[in-house]
Amino acid sequence: MSDDLEKLRSALKAATPDPDPAAKAAAMARAMESFDRHQESEGEARPMSDRPKGTGFPTGVLKMLMNLTSRPALTATASVAALCVGLIVVVPAIQKERPGSVAVPEVAETARERAADASVPEVALSQAEPELQTAPADEEAAQADDVRTLTLAEPAPAPDPAAPAAKMAEGRAGALADSDMDVRTLIGSAPKADAAFAPALAEPNTEVFANEDANPVKSVTEEPVSTFSIDVDTASYSVVRSSLKAGYLPPADAVRVEEMVNYFPYAYPAPEADDAPFRPKVSVVPTPWNEGTRLVHIGIQGRLPALGDRPPLNLVFLIDTSGSMQDANKLPLLKQSFRLMLGELRPEDEVAIVTYAGSAGQVLAPTPASDQAAIMAALDQLEAGGSTAGQEGLEQAYAVAEGMAADGEVTRVILATDGDFNVGISDPDALKSYIETKRKSGTYLSVLGFGRGNLDDATMQALAQNGNGTAAYIDTLSEAQKVLVDQLTGALFPIANDVKVQVEFNPAVVAEYRLIGYETRALRREDFNNDKVDAGDIGAGHTVTAIYEVTPVGSPAVLNEPLRYQPAEAQPELAAEDMELGFLKLRYKEPGASVSQLIEMPIPVEPEAAGEDARFAIAVAGFGQLLTGARYLGDWGWDEAIALANGAKGDDPFGYRTEAVQLMRLAESLSR
Amino acid sequence: MRMETADEDLAQAAAKGDREAFAALLSRHYDRIFGLAFRLTGDRAEAEDLAQDICASLPAKLASFGGRARVTTWLYRVTVNAAHDRRRRQAARTRAADGWGDWEIARRAEAEEAAKAQDWLIGAMRALTPELRDTVALTLGEEMSQAEAAEVLGVSEGTVAWRMSEVKKRLRAMARAEGMP
């Protein structure tokens, strides 16, 4: 060895410091933690042909869900029975698609278990995915390091529209009517799990979907009144999107038309200053797919309070930093998402951060939103590790929130989690009522889900419903942008609770009608006036759309033969110019109020040309129906839907409508 | 008892979920990982950080160990790759920080002689490209044979030999610039 090399060698050796025992201990501790986690998650990370049997699955969540739903399920036996009927009715349709692979559940309970079961592999898949996206080309590269040091500048968890995106339920307050929804959510989650799971494993599909069958055409003489709860959920659209982007058509039962229509913001006329918090607009327009019918388009625009007038916000971020949050699409994405959101806050808003993992702790004392540096620094320091002590964290978050609350301010706890809410909950019912109590005292709860897992959707929605909040799913940065930036105001400021819609059709004008979508939101006619029956909420600036297809009396498009033994009923005498197609009634409660208000308006007979928003909503409704069999669409197909949507894109500042057109084109190709 | 077990057996046991085996393996080799991390980065804090991340990532990598190589070779490879990866990321952030940039150890040096030697070392290491530095860290720092270093770096033995002759050339050029024989 030359002298130069020898000199370099000894200098190098001399310069190398002795390892610091503390650093060594810390490294060892982290390694052991990682080792333990790895042992736990191994079963999930590699889906095998035989299903994982509860290994690593948050059984606490499962148990909690059972408890959350069993009571309402028992009290609402009628609705469960109805669901069972729905299940059985649905079966033949599925058998067409997947011959010989469908088992008929005996009771709703079975289906629920299946839903739970099916979500396990899906969790596993979504966990494996970020590694595919972010793992450096070099197999040996330090992945843990990757996860820890991801920043906005790096491409790793970038907005990937192909990643399964599921933006979940907004504005569902919990109570009686939700018993249906809970069961529906659980059972309804099966299609999603199936969608992500089935193509990955060529395993015979044994799932049973339990979406409601499409609303049938109803005869006005038999059933003149249609009642439903508004629905601002958008989850179904995200599921459809992720399926199509993954290259297959979504299972028909994963498609809920109203959720697809309501995914998009519309610019309906805003309410006047002193009016109700939202304003309905009804128009009758020609049906693109049937010359013999018309569409009744009901657009509800929630008031967007002048931005300057909005009350100061007190936000407590309750962040799950358990070990399972380490994936790139969880904690790192959460940090990025909150960074985006901080830009939307005002100097007078306040932010506090509480974490829970193992033990709960306040990471950031209430800090004015103007001090972005301090908030960001606190966010940056969050690291995943340990197990989850959800209840303790929640209690601490509420305590912090109550310390921040003042008159005229809106206080909200924002729980960010992957749903691994399994340690420390000894009594789920107590947790639920705890959240309810806090809601009544004015502190709301919203839930942001990160990563995917369907059973967890249900938990989080149950929590958010009881907290009068929204549950949103964020698995890409663009979804974070939509939820936390573009539509932040709607998510944080509810303007009307328990909004119900009732339409009475005039049998002198309308022979038949069908409601497009809202199958899972149907209410009993008598529940419209019952203020105890819960329904959907509208947030600031939200728009809600409902579309009826109606067949005028005497139209050749009438499907139901007139009854032989029913006499034509006496109609109220209305002059031709006063003729109404029907009558629209809406009930809502001011936030916090227990008595509902009523809005009424007649539906005009004369059709008008559809505006841009209405045309786009109709195109999306057509899209949803094409995905579910298009029973009533005749020859109207993908080309027509695409043309209609393309002609109604409008400004589309966020590109949502453009994306929808792309999805339709994709669906057209896939359905050939 | 554990300490007598061969590295390879410990690694196999750890891969099968033996917690104690994993702990034993780590405690045996942490110093080695840290040492190499330091020689690759030239910064104590950076090396500690890197070593910790490597340790945390090992459980996931155990499966890929598979007993085909010696544990030490495998660990060296993991370390070198992790350092490469970190360097790549840092390069995106700042050009300057590709290792052996900030020399903190110099401040610790008490004897002037030592300080001088370290100044020389910094100068020498900075005069080398990252590839050459890695090769130096393995062959001189870890006293590996060229064949072993080649295995860790995933290059041919000839490449290592060529790199070392390149290192020699640069050192000589440096010495000439300093006016020494």
Written account of the structure:
The complex is a heterodimer of chains A (672) and B (181). In chain A, helix 5 crosses helix 7 (178-197) and helix 17 packs antiparallel against helix 18. A 6-stranded mixed beta sheet of chain A has the order 7-6-5-8-9-10, sandwiched between helices. Chain A has a 5-stranded antiparallel beta sheet with strand order 1-12-14-4-3. Chain A contains 19 helices and 16 strands. Chain A has helices at residues 3-15, 21-45, 59-75, 77-97, 108-134, 143-149, 178-197, 235-245, 257-261, 331-342, 372-380, 390-404, 428-440, 454-466, 477-486, 488-492, 612-627, 638-646, 656-670, and strands at 218-219, 225-229, 278-286, 294-302, 313-320, 350-357, 359-368, 410-417, 443-450, 471-474, 494-505, 510-516, 536-539, 543-552, 580-589, 597-604. Chain B has helices spanning 7-15, 19-41, 44-65, 71-93, 105-108, 112-126, 130-141, 146-153, 157-177. In chain B, helix 1 (7-15) crosses helix 2, helix 3 packs across helix 4 and helix 4 packs across helix 8 (146-153). At the A-B interface, helix 1, helix 2 and helix 6 of A face helix 2, helix 3, helix 4, helix 6 and helix 7 of B.
